[in-house]
Amino acid sequence: MTNPLSNLAHRIARWCALHPWRAILGWVAAVAVAVGLAATVPTQETTDADYRLGDSGRAAAMVDEAAFEDADTEQVLITARGGELDPGEARRAAAEVVARMTALTEVDAVAEPQASPDGTAYLVSVQLARDQDDVSALQEVTETVAADFPALDVRQSGDVSLDAAIGDRVAEDLASAETLSLPITLALMLLAFGALIAAGLPVLLAATSVAATIGILAPLSYLVHAESTVTSMIVLIGMAVGVDYSLFYLKREREERAKGHSSRDAVEIAAQTSGHSILVSGGAVICSMAGLFVIGDSTFNSLAVGSILVVAVAVLGSITVLPALLAKLGRWVDRPRVPLLHRLTRRMGTGFISGRVLGPVTRHPLVALALSTVVVLLLAVPALGMKTHSANLETLPASIPEVQTMRDLGSAYPSEGTTAEVVVAGDESLRDEVAEALVGLQVAGEETGRFTATGEPVAVSADGRTSVLTIGIPYDESDERVDAAVRELRTDLVPRALDGLDVEHAVGGDPAESLDFVERQQERLPLVIGFVLLLTLLIMGATFRSAPIAAVSAVLNLASVGVAFGMMALVFQHGWFESALDFSSPGFVIDWIPLFVLVVLVGLSMDYHVFVLSRVREHVARGLPTRLAVRQGVEETAGVVASAAAVMVSVFSIFATLSMLEMKMMGVGLSFAILLDATLIRLVMLPAVLCLLGERAWWPGRRPQPAGDRVLEADAAYELAGR
């Protein structure tokens, strides 16, 4: 039966090959228009309201509706540079900070200096003028006072300066990753092809796909607000799939030309085979990314839109402008050659390494499958105990001065550490009763030993309808006891304190927001996994008309995900390779990373899986027995898969070297899992399973009949010889 996707890819490629200039200029024009959109249409970024979730989201909405004064605060911490703190000198420095800060127009109010409970520090809190987001003048004051008192360590951090420092570090990290990824990708393509034009085409297509996607995302952001990191994810995913798809297509086109076909015929054959694989794998990646929508979170919605869009654009470019370029360039695609690299790639040939692995696997598939399964299970077992938590000060690099200042401030002033907010809204006539109830709540909380007083009075809105109590929790934010304390507030202490009052209440603050996010993710994660695996089953079943192939695909995807989760747990929860990767283990994995890694990994691994199985299917359709078809199909695709995997592993490995822990976690999880997926899983487990299934692999459909004289005797003899 003719495959409609194969026909579609063939018809599009044929038209583009017959009208190359139209296809090329059309692509250039589309990319230019998209880039123009980015320059003219401002991107609508996510706001605080987009992140509201559960009870903490209701608390934030109540505070926002009550129109509380929400001015940002900067903190100046004064400690001894060495030895014990001289209280007199510290007070003089603090007085100097107060005097200089008060004179600034950017400042609304300056609190009196506050000594720490143990007397080792002084703190000056500075309230900024409303909507003030520039603290450079305040930082100059801090630096001046620090220079005037060389025996003291005078440092500043706060709402604005900390966010700015983190933003600068993220920008530096991503710029470094993008700068390194391009030359590394180009170098790997040179190793794969040994020719400059052939190496440059995949990189060019991926780069233009990314540029077009960023442009299209600008108007789309008015429907789904763009999260600040979505552009980086577009670059990450776009370069990976763009290079992959071009690599698959280009390798097949060169292979067909080497057999004696004309350039146009080679392009059409590549369209029917690799073009079909690109459409299927692109659809699989898009369906996998769509699983992020199940969570219902603005961050995941934004990442899903960006990822789906860049994959769709990369697929479109691979089946349109790439065939046009190949038809126009002809054999010039292999020019200019890099002498040593070109000879090396020709000498290595198909199956240079994979043939040595596949021989034992196809001869002893049961042993190969058992051993590889043991390795995968050992690597995946740590995932069973994986703990997740939201990012906090512990996950930020201590090399950022503002981060270290906030950590020291939290240690010296426990009341400035972990806090929750109890928000109560009701009629103005209940104001005094609510205030009395919140005072009682504070006392009851302190009696449990799980809460502390912050020293802040109950805040009341201008209309007297909304009151906010800030209550301290004397544990690090990532401590499991913090979640227990928030739950106790919500289920016991707050309802009991407000019993009998006709009011609405909610518990918010950073720890409550983290708890709500983790609970939402844990609740919906099984739905995401089920959604992604079900779509994988349907896509693979419809593509290969085989129930066993669909089931095997789902199981192997789970194996890759298990390995990624296990490695992240070992490295970041248990602290493996801390010194090598230059980080300090927080004892958990940041909450959004596992879900994102899951959908990205399932999507990207389907690229290799579809490409390998499509080639195996081709040989089955030509009449080869399944075992021989498996060996020949895997050998012929192993080089392409290795090249594509090398690009992904190298790009993700760059992220593993960055300072931000989120990027490091994502890089370690994805790079290791893709490396294992492209080697152990696709070179050992997949061939072993297919060999064990034999002809049953194609059930319930009928096995394609031999194609007569299209199966060359030389091919059969070559395979039977076992290489």
Explain the overall architecture.
With 723 residues, the protein is α+β, with helices and mostly antiparallel strands. The protein contains 24 helices and twelve strands. Strands 1, 2, 3, 4 and 5 form a five-stranded antiparallel β-sheet that branches. Strands 7, 8, 9, 10 and 11 form a five-stranded antiparallel β-sheet that branches. Strand 9 and strand 10 form a beta hairpin. The longest helix has 35 residues, at 159-193. The two termini are 32 Å apart.
What labels describe this entry?
723 residues, alpha+beta, Multidrug efflux transporter AcrB transmembrane fold, Alpha-Beta Plaits, 5-stranded antiparallel beta sheet, 24 helices, 12 strands, 66% helix
